[in-house]
Amino acid sequence: MPRLAQIALVGALTTFALTGCTTTPPIRSIVVHDGHLDRQAIEVPANTRFTLTAAAIDTPSAALSAGPLGLPPTALPNTVSPPPKPGQSLSAADIRTVEFELGPIPPGTYPLRIVTGDRVQSLPLIAK
C-alpha cells in the first residue's frame, strides 16, 4: 500500500475511533407535574443505549417502573415549585431528577408505569 494511502487510512481510523468515544447516549425525560405526565409517549432509537431522566413537580408521591426493561419501582424526587412571579418559570436546573441508563433495546413498544398516589398511568416508550 502506498505511503500516502497508509497515512490516510490511519488518519481516518483515528478520527472514527475518537468520534466513537466522544458520543453520548441520547437523553429522554419524563416529568410528572401535579400528578399529570408531561407527554403522551417517548421515542428512543432502537438498539442504542440511552438515558432516561424522571422527575416530579408538585407531586409528593410518584414512582416509575418498567418490568420489560428491568427497571424496578423507583421513587421520583419531588420538587416543590416556588410561588409564580411575573415573567419567571421553574428552570430545569432547579428540578431534582433521577437518571436511568437503559438499552440497547430492540424495536418495539415498552410500557412505563407511573404511580402517583393511588393513580396508575402508563406511558409507552417506543424504540424505532
From TrEMBL:
Keywords: Signal. Residues 68-92 are annotated as: Disordered. Residues 1-19 form the signal peptide. Residues 70-86 have a biased composition (Pro residues). This is Lipoprotein. It comes from Phaeospirillum tilakii. The lineage of its organism: Bacteria, Pseudomonadati, Pseudomonadota, Alphaproteobacteria, Rhodospirillales.
